[in-house]
Write a structure and sequence with these properties.
Distance between the termini: 21 Å
Bound molecules: adenosine monophosphate
Number of strands: 6
Order of helices and strands: EHEEHEHEHEH
Radius of gyration: 15 Å
Largest sheet: 6 strands, parallel
Strand order of the largest sheet: 3-2-1-4-5-6
Structural class: alpha/beta
Shape: globular
Amino acid sequence: MIKRMVVNKDQYIIIVGCGRLGGYLANELSESSSNSVVVIDKNADAFERLNVSFSGFTIEADALETDVLINAKINKADVVVTTTNHDNVNIMVAQIAKSIFGVGHVIARLTDPSKEKVYEELNIETISPTALSAIEFKRIIMEGR
Ligand code: AMP
């Protein structure tokens, strides 16, 4: 069961990738107070995951193109979350957001937990759904003994 997120102040949040993870996150954040959420995905069909009540903006484009990020007003973003299904894309966009546009809070999806060290060295915060799921599965299994 996922608890509803509590965000203290309204933030301008860019989500890269509107897949199963990014789309879910976009819907959640859009419902939390009056965050401004922009979602970028190179596949227009991905935006069908967004609720009818989603109040943000969508951009159909490849987030690896700097012009796309500029168009999303990345220089004004409080948070950038990269959630595509490619770790390399996630790390590259996260780096661009941090180093070129000076975004204060950048979080990247990391599918392959063995790459965690690389991200750490680049000072990029990561979340690995793979590792989180494994930990939760283990917890449930151990509790069921
Ligand atoms: P999922 O694996 O379901 O979380 O989906 C990942 C999403 O990331 C898909 O909707 C892809 O179209 C999207 N995606 C992958 N690469 C890029 C990219 N370079 N720019 C924007 N979106 C991307």
